[in-house]
C-alpha cells in the first residue's frame, strides 16, 4: 500500500476498537500490541476473554513434543492477560482446555479474578476443575457453563447466591447431587437449564422444582443398564423440554402446564401426561406408530410434529376410532426424517393414510429417506392416498 494511505483502522474511536478486539480470540487481540505504540495497550480494555488451548497450534506439538512447555507458557499467558486487563465489567470469560491439563489451582484463581472483574458470562471447559467460593456468590453472573472431565465434588459456601443467573449449563461426570443440584436452589431467576448427567445407581430422585424455568434440556448417560431413576418436573412456566440419551427413567409431570415445545426419546412414552399448551413436538428413538398416536391425544393444540430416527412396527391398530383433537383443528406440519423405505412399509402406509384421512388442517407432510435410494413405489402409493385437507402437500427428500 502507498505510504499516503491513511490508517483508518487506527483512527476509529477507542470504544469501537475495543469492541473489535473483544470479538477476537484473546491471543489474537494481544498480538495487536506490536502494531504500533498507539495499539500497545488497546487490548487491555477488551470485554471478552477467550482462551483456547488449540487455537493456532499444532496438536502433535501439544501432545508429544512440548507438552510441559506449552502448559507453562499458556499458564503464564493467562496470568499476564488478567494482570493487565483494565476493564471494570467483563462481559464474558471462556476457558477451553481440551488437550492440556492446567492445574486446577490456576483455573480457580482465574475464575476468581473474572468474578472480581464483574463477569456476566462464564464458560469453563477444562480437564480439572476446582471452583473458587467467590463464584457461588457472584452478583453479576447471568450465564454459567461448566464442563469438566475429572470426578470431583465442589466446595460450596453455606449459601449459594447467584441473583442474576438466568442460564445454567453443566456437564456432570459424577454425582450431580454434589454439584449441579447444590447450585440450582441459589438461582432465584433461573430460566434456562441444561444438564448432561452420568446416571449411576443412587437413591435420590431427580426433582426439578423451579418456578421461573422456561427451558429444560436433559441428557442422560446411563452407566448401568438396570438403573431406573425417577424424574419429577414441577415447572409451571416451562415452555421448552428436550430429553436425550439412554434413559430408563420414570418421568412424573407434576406441573408443566405452560409447555409448548418438546423433544423426547422413547423413554417418556410410558408415562404420558396432558400437554395442554404444546405446539411443537419432536419424537426420537424408535417410537411405534401406535405410541405416536397416543402422544398426539395428549397434545390438543399441537401444530408441528417431527418424527426422527426410526419408526417401530408394533402397537398400530387399523383405523382407530378416536381421532386426536390436534389433528382436527391444529396440526399443520408433519416431518418424518431418516425413514428407511425398505422397512415398516405396510404399517407406515397405514399410519400415514390414517393421518391424511383424519388431519383436517394439514398443510405439509415431508418425508426424508434414511438412505440414498428413494422407494418410488412407496412414494407413488402415498401420493394416491386421500386427504382430509385439500391444501395438504406431500414432499419427498432423497435422490
Description:
Pfam families: F-box, FBD, LRR_At5g56370. This is F-box domain-containing protein. Residues 6-54 form the F-box domain. The structure is a single chain. This protein is 23% helix and 25% strand. It has a 14-stranded parallel beta sheet, with helices on one face. It has a 3-stranded parallel beta sheet with strand order 7-9-11, with no helix packed on it. It is built from 10 helices and 17 strands. It has a domain at 279-399. The chain starts with 13 loop residues before the first helix and ends with a strand. β5, α6 and β6 form a beta-alpha-beta unit. The chain has 399 residues and is of the alpha/beta class. α4 (67-84) runs parallel beside α5 (104-116). It has helices at 14-22, 26-31, 59-65, 67-84, 104-116, 180-183, 289-297, 325-329, 345-358, 376-383; strands spanning 48-52, 92-96, 121-126, 143-148, 167-172, 192-199, 206-209, 215-222, 229-234, 240-246, 249-255, 261-264, 280-283, 304-307, 333-339, 364-369, 393-397. The mean pLDDT is 79.
Any low-confidence stretches, pLDDT <50, length ≥5? none
Record field, number of beta strands = 17
In DSSP terms (H or I, runs of 4 or more residues), the helix count works out at: 10
How are the strands of the largest sheet arranged? Answer: 1-2-3-4-5-6-8-10-12-13-14-15-16-17
Major β-sheet, in short? 14 strands, parallel
Mean pLDDT: 79
Beta-strand share of residues: 15-25%
Overall body shape: elongated
Rg, Å, rounded? 27 Å
